[in-house]
Write a structure and sequence with these properties.
The structure is a single chain. This protein is an alpha+beta fold. It has 2 domains: 168 residues, FAD/NAD(P)-binding domain; 155 residues, 2-Layer Sandwich (D-Amino Acid Oxidase, Chain A, domain 2). It is 27% helix and 27% strand. It has 10 helices and 20 strands. Strand 11 and strand 12 form a beta hairpin.
Length: 372
């Protein structure tokens, strides 16, 4: 079956990979170059972690996602992943890390808890509130995002997949199974998969309130020399403070230390995002001040602007109209599901999986692990 895939980020490319595995004929359309260096998928690293507060379905999906990434590594002949585990901090009963612990218990997934002293022994660059405790998972870590996207492009080229870069789609006609490109040309197929990220609402204005385009800023830093080795051994870090959603990706395998703060985002047109402000990277880094020793000795290397689509409830947004399947509302946590989401979209687009089942799954409604 011929399947048109709109969007050349990790989800679009992974969908094409999965379609090829199933014996189908994907065509990928990307409005910019391939790899697309200006999209949300292109960065040094992205976190993949089991803790997911009380979102049992997404926690269970991470287990399946890790298996899907292994299938992708086998096909690529390359592995772009560091299993360094994750650390979340809890300072109050019922907070994000505490809910994550209860979810892990519910699913029978193992973890370790650390008191404040043990956290500082493992991460000597941190200063932790004495009433805090840490939730540690050995599974998960860092996906090397840009390397994955580049490897997928090479793989699909080798398999003879049509990759249409610099091909902006301006409209999708579900009734006709047709895409219209900016140059006026049209493409038709039995099935269309739209993975347009922050550009979803431009193709489907009715989704504007469900998948709201945002401008997110992250910061890259150089730690003090005295702490560089400890950072290189550190786990990925998520939800370190209850009042500020902050996360950190350690400098592993040639990457740099990255800080992110969920609150440092605002709505914005993905085609007209404001450039990085002079102090924005410093503002992102400043959220970590309460937790880091010698914070003033960290050197800010640069900031980066990322286009995301945020859904009100942080669940993925899906729609189906005729032969068109749409996934959006990545809310900053889509990349970890890249290979798995590609497999599921491929099955749904070609009729192997019922859309209603896909939608429930993608929205994190499943409450148990997949049976092997």
């Amino acid at each position: 079956m011929k399947v048109l895939v709109v969007g050349g980020g990790v989800i679009g490319l992974s969908t094409a990979w999965a379609l090829v595995r199933q014996g189908h004929d994907p065509v990928v359309f990307e409005q910019g170059p391939l790899p697309q260096t200006g999209g949300a998928s292109y960065d040094q690293h992205r976190l993949i972690r089991l803790p997911y507060a009380d979102q049992t379905g997404y926690c269970a999906m991470v287990v399946d996602a890790l298996k899907a990434w292994d299938r992708l590594w086998d096909d690529l002949g390359e592995r772009h992943y560091a299993e360094i585990g994750s650390l979340a901090l809890s300072t109050a009963e019922g907070d994000w890390a505490d809910l994550s612990r209860l979810t892990l218990d519910r699913l029978g997934l193992g973890y370790e808890t650390l008191d404040a002293r043990q956290i500082e022994e493992r991460c000597p660059f941190m200063t932790v509130p004495q009433d805090a405790w840490g939730l540690v998972n050995q599974r998960g870590g860092l996906l090397f995002a840009a390397r994955i996207v580049e490897a997928l492009v090479r793989y699909l080229q080798h398999r003879g997949v049509s990759l249409r870069s610099e091909s902006r789609i301006v409209s999708v006609d579900p009734g006709a199974g047709c895409l219209t490109l900016e140059d006026g040309s049209r493409e038709t197929a039995e099935a269309i998969v739209v993975t347009a990220g922050a550009w979803t609402a431009k193709l489907f204005p009715e989704l504007a309130r469900k998948a709201v385009p945002h401008r997110q800023v992250i910061a890259y830093l150089e730690p003090p020399e005295s702490q560089a080795e400890a950072w290189a051994r550190a786990p990925a870090m998520v939800h370190l403070l209850n009042d500020v959603d902050i996360y950190a990706a350690p400098p592993v395998d040639g990457t740099e230390l990255k800080f992110g703060a969920g609150e440092h985002r605002r709505p914005g047109d993905p085609d007209k995002l404001d450039p990085l402000g002079e102090n924005e990277a410093a503002e992102v880094a400043a959220a970590f001040r309460p937790l880091l020793r010698d914070f003033d000795d960290y050197k800010i290397l640069r900031g980066q602007v990322c286009p995301y689509a945020i859904s009100p409830d942080d669940r993925f947004v899906t729609e189906r109209n005729g032969g068109v399947t749409v996934i959006g509302g990545c809310s900053g946590h889509m990349f970890k599901f890249g290979a798995l989401m590609g497999e599921e979209l491929a099955k749904t687009a070609t009729g192997e999986r019922a859309y209603a089942d896909f939608r429930s799954w993608a929205e994190g409604r499943r409450e148990s692990l997949t049976e092997d």
